[in-house]
Specification:
The protein is mostly beta strands. The protein has one helix and four strands, in the order H-E-E-E-E. The relative contact order is 0.21.
Length: 80
């Protein structure tokens, strides 16, 4: 996350105000979702998992999506 230039405040902004673009309810060990938010105009993807037993949000990864890999709007991956 930090190696990719995404700061903790960026992740918090996406979690609190971003939108879910994909749900992964069968992910193990916890269900996860891909969130998209824009921080100062910069798109940020955050993959977060939820441990309901401890009510803990686990950040799996956070990155700036590459335009050549995503359709306009960064909500859907381009077909390869």
């Amino acid at each position: 996350m930090f190696e990719r230039g995404v700061e903790k405040d960026d992740v918090n902004a996406v979690i609190s105000g971003g939108e879910t673009v994909a749900d992964h309810p069968d992910d193990k060990p916890y269900p996860s979702q891909l969130l998209l938010g824009f921080v100062e105009g910069r798109p940020i993807h955050v993959v977060a998992a939820w441990d309901a037993g401890t009510e803990t949000c686990i950040i799996v990864t956070a990155y700036e999506p590459q335009p050549e890999q995503w359709e306009a709007g960064f909500r859907k991956r381009r077909d390869e």
